[in-house]
């Protein structure tokens, strides 16, 4: 059974009358939301009389027989128990897959098993062991909080501690300010929101109060950089590049991410010009998620000569970041001395 995260509370309310499932799988990369989901499941299990807890971490060298023993062995005191299995890699291997299928096939009425995994790729989500876990219990996928939804998420979290921002434009600015400062780091966002609860009384928060209290704790993902470039969000694009530079990200990785996106845009632009539907092109080029909407829009906005010029600049930057001599075409301006400035120039060619 698959369950969305926002449906977990309703499921737990029903479980008070019908009983908990014998097995729950929580998977996703938003560590804060995964931890909170597991906390709620653990609290519900304790309320239902599962008073003992055993934690297993499936790291290198883990003996998978321990999992089967944990499920089948009785507590020393005869108590029902919670068995938590954490698989940090998300890849249990052959032995682990067999053990997971075994525990899924023989659930115990005296055990609630909580399995936590990182975000699963397509192959893992279709594997026999994961299908067995989903079939035996409840699977909860924890999606990342999209950047566009982050201000609303912050507002919801403030409401939980009886705080709110001002109405109208000042409030929107305050939520946007917090989102900009904590982007990509929900754990830090949670801490900053809690700090507002400690610093100020319940009620309305002004923009100045938020500004003075919230630190810049954003963590930027190089693979999210393309989304801001494709959408033409120049302020966010520049902020992310500065953040990646400050975090010491490798210039070669940033250049690779930008160049791959430009290559995709060039192929889409050519395909659209040839009369191919955008949906067909997205499937052929394996463009999924938010990019499925952003890539066609950006490709229609940009001309083929501009995309070719961007690829030419990317080739020159590639030589620069590898310490090789620049070979500019006739009449071309020299590259910026600092590679990060060149990366910004490349990204802005597409964003603008």
Mean pLDDT: 89
Low-confidence stretches: none
Number of domains: 3
CATH architecture of the largest domain: 3-Layer(aba) Sandwich
CATH homolog superfamily of the largest domain: P-loop containing nucleotide triphosphate hydrolases
Cα distance, first to last residue? Answer: 45 Å
- Count up the helices: 17
Structure, briefly:
With 352 residues, the protein is α/β, with parallel strands linked by helices.
Protein topology:
Layout: E1 2-4, H1 8-18, E2 23-27, H2 31-47, E3 50-57, H3 65-72, E4 80-86, H4 93-105, E5 111-117, H5 122-125, H6 128-136, E6 138-141, H7 150-160, E7 163-165, H8 168-182, H9 186-199, E8 203-205, H10 207-213, H11 225-231, H12 234-246, H13 251-273, H14 278-284, H15 291-301, H16 304-321, H17 339-351
Parallel strand pairs: 1-6, 2-5, 2-6, 3-4, 4-5, 7-8
Explain this structure.
The protein is α/β, with parallel strands linked by helices and 352 residues long. It folds into 3 domains: 2-141, Rossmann fold, CATH 3.40.50.300; 147-213, Helicase, Ruva Protein, domain 3, CATH 1.10.8.60; 222-351, Zinc Finger, Delta Prime, domain 3. The chain is 57% helix and 11% strand. The protein has 17 helices and 8 strands. The chain has a 6-stranded parallel beta sheet, sandwiched between helices. The protein starts with a strand and ends with a helix.
